[in-house]
Design a protein that fits this description.
The complex is a heterodimer of chains A (431) and B (98). Chain A is of the alpha/beta class. Helix content of chain A is 37%, strand content 26%. The termini of chain A are far apart. Chain B has 98 residues and is α+β, with helices and mostly antiparallel strands. The chains are: A alpha/beta (431), B alpha+beta (98). At the A-B interface, helix 3, strand 11, helix 6, helix 7 and strand 15 of A face helix 1, helix 4 and strand 6 of B.
Chain lengths: 431, 98
């Protein structure tokens, strides 16, 4: 192994692999370090991979990548204890090339993706933890690993070490996250015959469905549940802010069991066999929690840079785009033979001008808003359920009287005003 | 009438997961006195998704072998009393699917 590389990428997730792939393709020498037994062995994702940002790295990847199902339908369930108001979109165009997104199992997908980076010439070394960045005169010049004689040097180190980015933190790029800046998600993979999946979810053979669960799925705490269809498994999970679990003293796996046994969910998963149980943090602090992303000889990408759009369950696509921009930046720096923060700042500008930065800015206050005003989840969703139940129950009451009762049940004019104000506020943080 | 199926316990869930545990723990409670005297809730025993923290009379038992390496305990401990590191390369949890 040469002792010095053009670039060392720490972490073989979507951000790190995209970066290593692009760098190797651009002719740079790249070392990709992964602490797990293989890429994907430490990674968790609900399971939706967006096509466009992956294709920006490998055009036509879906013809050979290990994918589960193209998503042709996205449903949303606003749940109460024994009911749900459901809406969604199904489109046949999503079932054809170029597709919109796919369900994937990360341990399989990441191994395949890392293999593609290796084909391009990146050197992948697994089972290696990076203990710290080697800093000289304020400039990152390499990394110290947990291998014997494990010091390696590079012009640039790219930190793609995920939500627990101890490296970016130790460089002082961000402070330790607070419990309201991260969501703890638990999930299970459930084995179920593909034919049964297709029947239950109303799908054809090469179609997939995602269902996002709000309200009672998290017992009214800020967060969401999800149920996604894979080929012959289902991914079911639930995530809430860590602060929510602490405040309400909820055990995350009991919340997962609660979702699995919910009368709106149980029929979908009945008879399935649990295959794997997983837990992971999601950086959901948004724009305000983003730390420094560039320094002398160092760039931060993906979850390590807090790049998650919690409102739209997007993360891996932001990660891939950031990894790609980091690679572009390193190649430029290599040409100029200047790896200072000033040159590498091209990455930050490019990132913030792209959809990544724009979306981070657009939703900069949304998580905090919904966290601050829990009534959206614990009051308004049950209210919508009750209204739907009253309106659709035929019992000899006239529709006008039903309407009157629904409006009366909402409460006093003061309470109605409060709801109107909350709706306006929600629109404002999301607009 | 069939009894409603009991929920899967955390022990059953953990059996589904592959671990390649190191012989040394990567998690350390820094000051046992803080758990004993300053933390009536012992909240880490509740929010940890693998229930690796268990309070045993006067000390915290840390079953690091079943850790998912999620980082919640480091961030969620109200007294920042947990030293959290990554397990040695190749060790710890090994996800096969998700």
């Amino acid at each position: 192994m040469p002792e010095k590389f053009d670039c060392i990428v720490v972490g073989a997730g979507p951000a790190g692999i995209s970066c290593a792939y692009e760098l190797a393709k651009g002719g740079a020498s790249v070392l990709l370090l992964e602490r797990g037994e293989y890429p994907g062995s430490k990674n968790v994702m609900g399971g939706v991979l967006y096509r466009q940002m992956m294709e920006d790295v490998i055009p036509g990847f879906y013809k050979e990548a290990p994918l589960e199902r193209p998503v042709t339908e996205q449903r949303f369930m606003m749940m109460d204890k024994e009911s749900a108001v459901t809406f969604g979109y199904k489109g046949m165009e999503w079932g054809r090339e170029p597709y919109n997104n796919f369900t994937v199992l990360r341990a399989k997908f990441d191994q395949w993706f890392a293999g593609k980076a290796v084909e391009q010439g990146a050197l992948l070394i697994n089972e290696t933890v990076v203990l710290e960045c080697i800093v000289e005169d304020g400039k990152v010049i390499g990394v110290r690993t947990d291998r014997p004689d494990g010091e390696v040097y590079a012009d640039v180190v790219v930190l793609a070490d995920g939500v627990n980015s101890l490296l970016a933190k130790s460089l002082g790029f961000h402070k330790e996250y607070k419990p309201d800046e991260v969501a703890l998600a638990t999930m299970e993979i459930l084995k179920l015959d593909s034919k049964i999946i297709e029947d239950r979810f109303n799908l054809e053979k090469n179609q997939g469905c995602t269902i996002e669960l709000f309200g009672d799925a998290t017992k009214g705490i800020l967060g969401t549940g999800f149920l996604y269809t894979n080929k012959d498994t289902l991914s079911i999970g639930v995530g809430t802010l860590l602060s929510g679990l602490i405040k309400h003293k909820i055990r995350p796996y009991e919340l997962l069991e609660y979702v699995k046994n919910h009368p709106m969910i149980r029929p979908y998963i009945q008879g399935s066999e649990p295959q794997e149980y997983l837990a992971h943090l999601i950086p959901e602090g948004g724009y305000h929690s983003m730390g420094k992303v560039v320094g002398d000889g160092v760039i931060v990408v993906g979850d390590a840079a807090q790049l998650v759009n919690a409102i739209h369950r997007e993360g891996s696509n932001l990660a891939m785009t950031s990894g790609r921009y980091a690679a572009e930046t390193v190649l430029k720096a290599k040409e100029a033979e200047d790896f200072s923060e000033k040159t590498l700042d091209y990455y930050r500008k490019k990132l913030m001008d792209s959809f990544v930065g724009q979306d981070m800015k657009k939703y900069k206050d949304s998580t905090h808003h919904f966290d601050k005003f829990p009534q959206y989840f614990d009051q308004y969703i049950p209210m919508v359920n009750k209204a739907a139940s009253q309106m659709f129950t035929v019992d000899g009451t006239s529709k006008r009287d039903k309407q009157k009762k629904i409006i009366k049940d909402i409460g006093s004019p003061k309470q109605k005003f409060k709801i109107a104000r909350d709706m306006y506020r929600a629109w404002k943080v999301m607009k | 009438m069939s009894e409603q199926k009991k929920g899967q316990s955390i022990e059953e869930k953990q059996y589904l997961v592959r671990f390649n545990a190191d012989t040394k723990s990567h998690l350390h409670v820094m000051d046992e006195d803080i758990c004993l005297n300053k933390c009536p809730d012992k909240i880490c025993t509740i929010f940890c998704p693998a229930e690796i923290y268990k309070w045993e009379d006067i000390r915290m038992h840390v079953g690091y072998e079943g850790c998912h390496e999620c980082g919640s305990c480091r961030i969620g401990c109200p007294h920042q009393n947990i030293k959290w590191e990554y397990p040695k390369g190749g060790h710890g949890i090994v996800f096969r699917l998700g």
